[in-house]
Amino acid sequence: MQIRDGSASTALLTDQYELTMLAAALADGSAQRRCTFEVFARRLPHGRRYGVVAGTGRLLEALTRFRFGAEELAIAEKFLDPATVEWLREYRFTGDIDGYAEGELYFPGSPILTVRGSFAECVVLETLVLSIFNHDSAIASAAARMVSAAAGRRMIEMGSRRTHELAAPSSSRAAYLAGFDATSNLEAVRSFGVPGAGTSAHAFTLLHSGADGEHEAAAFRSQVEALGIGTTLLVDTFDITRGVATAIEVAGPELGGVRIDSGELGVLARQVRDQLDALGATGTRIVVSGDLDEYAIAALRAEPVDVYGVGTSLVTGSGAPTAGMVFKLVEVDGIPVAKRSSHKESRGGAKKAVRLARATGTIVEEIVYPAAGEAPSTNGFQVRELQVPLVRGGETVDGVATLARSRELVAQGLVSLPWEGLKLSDGEPAIPTTFLG
């Protein structure tokens, strides 16, 4: 499946048991019962105080391509009866979906997505929904912590080589949504409009070595001639002090930036800043990369770093590669149903949610209540409903948050957290979630 191929079906991005359940439900007549499914996370990853909803835009696009054509049916008919195969041939989701806008924060139990329709048309979407939301929300949640730790400094996502090739663009998108400024991944530039960034690697400097030795100056000169004086030169291939001196000798004091990719980054950043300033390159930025995560970024906050490049930790969720979300049936023909398995309980009935905030904008509580019930008392706090319409009658509604708007929502959400909610240390969720009914 190609990322940009608008005709490529998403129907087989699923688990076989979704379709065998469908077959059984069609056979016993329960397939058309009206159902409500909810997506939520029972808990946040260890040490996390909030999550970021990401993947909504990708899901809505993928839903338009959830169709069973000849190739998909050729797989399905290997294990399904003919009646079920024919049902899949005509499949179109015709139900409704509500959810938290992409970019909203979420907490344990937040009803992030509500899917309504027949059992048959909803259940087959479970794996697609969870694979997108669990991946993208994990990346966005880690990225938001890194953005907070960076305290306004430029952030570049460069993790493509550390993840699956088809996961890399969606990782870039999720990082951008959470506040990163650019990506090295060109498919993300093409598919999602994320700004691109990148200059050179150590291989380019080594390329200019010869039998007579290293020619770092030649590599720098070539790069500047090709990319302009605003480029960033990688100065730690050999000796970093000599590399900085050579960079300014070749490019002059108007050089855009130098990048440090190894060593004690804090110590080196201070040394490089002092050296650049002494050479008159006071405006030359310092870019650091190399196994950074939110903790390393926070530790560098007092150092003269202008730009962070983050790879492995970002695309692996910085230790939490999945958001732990589940897709659970909560209502059948208007009757609440709930799972009671130990440590995997669910709350029956369709739900809505509101978030309460002080006049200052600081959020204090999330309240989840029965969708058919009365909105809860606000006790003088500002109140905001969290679920918004996403799909009606199988069609995406107008006004769904764009990627640019989702970036704004993340930024606004981070500002709204109580100060302790931004801590990187272990602790409880930033705000409590209260369940009514």
Automatic annotation (TrEMBL):
Instruction: Tell me its EC number(s), please.
Output: 6.3.4.21
Q: What family is this?
A: Belongs to the NAPRTase family.
Its Gene Ontology molecular function terms? glycosyltransferase activity; nicotinate phosphoribosyltransferase activity
Q: Which residues form the Nicotinate/nicotinamide phosphoribosyltransferase domain?
A: 155-347
Catalysed reaction equations from the record: 5-phospho-alpha-D-ribose 1-diphosphate + nicotinate + ATP + H2O = nicotinate beta-D-ribonucleotide + ADP + phosphate + diphosphate
Key words of the record: Glycosyltransferase, Ligase, Phosphoprotein, Pyridine nucleotide biosynthesis, Transferase
**What is the recorded post-translational modification?**
Transiently phosphorylated on a His residue during the reaction cycle. Phosphorylation strongly increases the affinity for substrates and increases the rate of nicotinate D-ribonucleotide production. Dephosphorylation regenerates the low-affinity form of the enzyme, leading to product release.
**How is this protein named in the record?**
Nicotinate phosphoribosyltransferase
Could you tell me which Gene3D superfamilies the record lists for this protein? Aldolase class I, nicotinate phosphoribosyltransferase
- The question of whether Ligase is a record keyword is answered with yes
Which parts of the sequence belong to the Nicotinate phosphoribosyltransferase N-terminal domain? 12-134
| One GO cellular component, as annotated | cytosol
Q: Pathway it belongs to?
A: Cofactor biosynthesis; NAD(+) biosynthesis; nicotinate D-ribonucleotide from nicotinate: step 1/1
